[in-house]
Structure formats: structure tokens, C-alpha cells
Amino acid sequence: MTITPGHYMALAAALFAIGLIGVMVRRNIIIVFMSIELMLNAVNINLVAFSQMYGHVTGQVFALFVVALAAAEAAVGLGIILAFYRNKETVNIDEMSIMRW
Amino acid sequence: MGEAIAFYSLAALILVFAVLVVSARSAVHSVLFLVANFLCVAVLYVLLHAEFLAVIQVLVYAGGILVLYLFVVMLVNLKRAPEEASDPRRRDRFGLLLSGAILAELAAIVLYSFAAPWSHTAGAAAVPGPGNVETVGRALYVDYVIPFEVASILLLVAMVGAIVLAKRDL
Amino acid sequence: MIDSVLIPLFKIVILLVGVLTAVAYMVLLERKVQAWVQVRLGPMRVGPHGVLQPIADVVKLIIKEDITPARADRWVYTLAPILVLVPALIVFAVIPIGESITMFGREVPLYLTDINVGLLYIVSVSSVGVYGIILGGWASNSKYPLLGALRASAQLVSYEVAVTMTLVSLILMAGTLSMVGIVEAQREAGLWYIFVQPVAFVIFLIGGLAETNRAPFDMPEAESELVAGFHTEYSGIRFALFFLAEYANMIVVSAVATTLFLGGWLRPFPNVAVLAPLGLVPGWAWFLLKTFLFLYFFLQVRATLPRYRYDQLMRLGWKVLIPLAIANLFVTGAARVLL
Question: Is the ipTM of this complex over 0.90?
């Protein structure tokens, strides 16, 4: 019983779907952000699994770029959340619709 | 055999923690489950012979980004529950259905690809070279030096942006 | 079977017992050193000159009532001390205490494992320890612990950057991330890295004081400002875990500093042939001696220096140490390329 890259892909797909459900269903924007992190991690698992499959480190290098991207996204996103919270005292994503009417 | 046991137990843990992240009531608990999830993913990377990435996962994700999340969760101390108000035009059910459909699609793709045998098996071709750190470093600084610089500029921009957004008066 | 399971298990047991005993006696030593500095006697009642005091302390902490505040988040409140202690202990897995020794006709290396990302492993595992502090302060549902926790985590996160930067310049010198490899590189260079990287050593030492929340950077638990900081509400065995973790972290910092800057198990001046008789002392004894020197330094500093103010601490971290560490890294890199 060997573990093929397919197993890792199945795991990543399930993780991605869970993150997607979180983004769709939760209304606390911080938890929505965390669900996005879950999805990014699912992508990383895929990248590393393929890097292992082809015996080449490119996948791992791109996983590193994804981590850097996640850091940038978290910093800016959380900054926006804090700025919004100071103005409207809420982190509910449904009440953040002042940009569309 | 050992690899299979490790993979299945890790996969189960990762998925359970992911479900808990999405379903936890308190945001602090959510962050905690996310930390546990990321630590399990790091162990999975070790299983895939990506030691450097595993350590970076713990250092950057668990030790850096999630501490930031925890800080924000604690700063944002809410008088009413964040999930209380709901936009009447919001379509929760539809979103759930949509993500369910995507899950089904992904499952179908995975099942379909399992039907054909894999030409490579994981672990057959381990990453060659003196060690994982050296090979990743060489790839990062020689083959992908332009993307690397772009990523560093992105981080700089994000840093400036975060300060501008979060600081009350500059 | 014996090589893959029994010997590592045996080593883990010895390591844990050793570290925990060392922690218990560190507490006694700290009280004695402070007493000497202040011309007092320190603990004298339990055993001759108080040498059995740690046992009495442990018994007291275990049988004390273990209180959970009424509005506390029960699970997180219990989890927090464990989250602080576990990273502090598992770091010891990669710290090399000595070279291989022959025991019962078997070559036994004096370290648990030697992984090729050893130094990064230490940095990343100890960065997880922050969670215990933040969560402990938050879960107590009380004002002083929360303030202490926020101070502590801001301090840890800021100083981690400076310390990690200095480690990068050290990695540039050694060309490896493995802890054993770094000691071997110092043997080959014939020089401890403290002589090559004095700036990095000073930054590491200051950062180490801040990372372990020790005086003069003990803001998170400043008695006069915050009662006791993030563990105000803790008592009994859970308080003991926080306490253990703090001292275990001190031992970690000392052991890492010994390995990186003082040549680990190497004797002083490993390339000077005149000092060869020093090589008769086994390597692990040198390692323990050097680690002890660092620990004594920690205690002496606490007895000597007053506490920093919070804004001074942040200024020192961000405006002095981090630029200095980056400059040091730049100079090291340039020297490596040019020389």
C-alpha cells in the first residue's frame, strides 16, 4: 500500500473545499481570512507533493512564495479589518457593504 | 506501511482541525485549531522530504502570521457577537451548495485520476543533492531570483500598506 | 531495535530528568546569588545551606490548590502552560552536548538527533512558545494578565527578528544549519565564533535576555506594575509549569549560545597545541561548564540591572538591535564574498 501523489491531491482537495465552505458561510471576517489561509495551505500541499513526484524543488520554491504572499495578505487584510473596526465597531462581513449600495 | 499510517493519521488530523477552524464559535478557538492544523501540515511536509519548508511553515505561519491573527482577535473586542447581524440579501445556502458542488467536482477529478495508474510514486524520486536546504536555496537564489525579488518588493509594499492602514495618524 | 528505539528513549529520559533537575536547582541558585549580592544568606532551613529547598518547593507547588477563575475559558486556560513548556523542552532534541562516547562497546552520540535544519528548528519551535503566553493571559479573563500577555508577545516577536538576523550571519560563517555541523566548523576554523562575530554575540545575548523575559526585560511579569503579568491567575501545578518553562528557556538560550559562539563541546582554543592537556577533560564537561557560565550571567544581570521601561525596550529592539543585526549580516556577507 503505497501513498501516491493522488492521495496528497485528495487531501488537498478536501482541505480546499473546507476552506471554501468557511469563506462562503462564516460572517466573522477574521474567520473568513483564516479559511483563506486553509485554502492556501491546500495549494501548498499540492505543490510539495508534485515537487516530490518529479524529484525537483521548484514546487517547494513556489510553496515558499505562497507563504510570503500569505504573510503580505495577512498584514494588509488585518490592517483593513482594524481600520474598519475603528470606524464601525464590527467585523461582520455583511455590514461591510458600504462600498456597494 | 509506516508511510501509509503516518499519512492517514496526519490527513485525518488536518481535516478534523480544518473543520473545527471553520465551525468554532469563538475566534480565539478558531486560531488555535488553525495553529494545530498548520503544525500537522508541517509534519506532512517532513513526510514529503521538504524539511526546509516544514520549518518555514512553523516559523512563518504558526509563529508569525497566526500570532498576528490572535492579536487582532484580541484587539477587536466586540460588544455583540460578530455573527449576529445578517444581510437579508445574503445567500448562505447557495454558498454552501456552491462549495459542495466544487467539493464534488474535485472528488470526481481525484477519483478519475486514481483510475489511471501513477507513472511516478511519491518517495520514488527523492529530491537529489547534498541536502534539502542547499537545493532549495540554490533554486531560490539562482533559478528564481527575479520572482524572489518581486516577492520581497511585495512584502515591502504590504508592510507600508499595513502601517498606513492601521496607524491612526501618520 | 536497540539502536532505533531503546537508546533514543533512554537518552530522552536522561535529558528530561537532567533538564528538570537543573531547573529546580537553578531556582535555588538564583535565590542564593541574589542573597550574596544583597549580603543575605538566602534559603538555609531545608537541608545544609538549603540544598534540599527545591524538593520542598516542588512538593509545595504540587499539593497547592489549583484554581481556575470563574469566567475563565477552561480548555485554553489549561492548555496554555503546556503550550509554553513543551516547546521549551523539545528544543533540547537537537542540542549536541558532546561528541560520541563509547559505552558498553557501542558508539553513542551525545545528542538525540542531528537534522540538517537544526538551528531553524530551534528558532521555529521556540516561536510557538508565544502562544502559551498570549492564551494564558487571555483565558484568565482578567485585566493584568491580558496586559502582561500583550506586552510579552510584542516583546518576544520584536526580539525574535533581531536574534534570527544574527543567527543568519552565523550560518553564513558555518555554511550549515546543523548544530553538530556548526561546532565542527568551529573546530575546523580553529576559532570560536565569539571572536569572529562579537557583535552577533552581544545582540544574541541581549535578545536572549528579552526572549526569556528575564531582567532587565521582565516587563511581562513586572511585579510592581502588573502584579505578576500573564500568570497572575495561575496557581499550583499549572503555575509550576510556567515557572519551569521560564527556567528551561534560560537553559535553552545558554546551551544554544554555547554551541554557536563558544564552540559547544570543544576545549578553549582548539587549535593551540600547548593547551592540549585541556583536551583530557571530556567534551560534555566543557559544554556544561560553558552553559553554566551563561546561566550565572543571567542571574548576575538580574541582581544588578534595573528594569527597562516598555517604550525603551521597544526602541532598543527596533531602532538599535535590528539595524545593528542587519549591518552585521551585511558586513559578514561582504567579508565572505571578498575574502
Answer: no
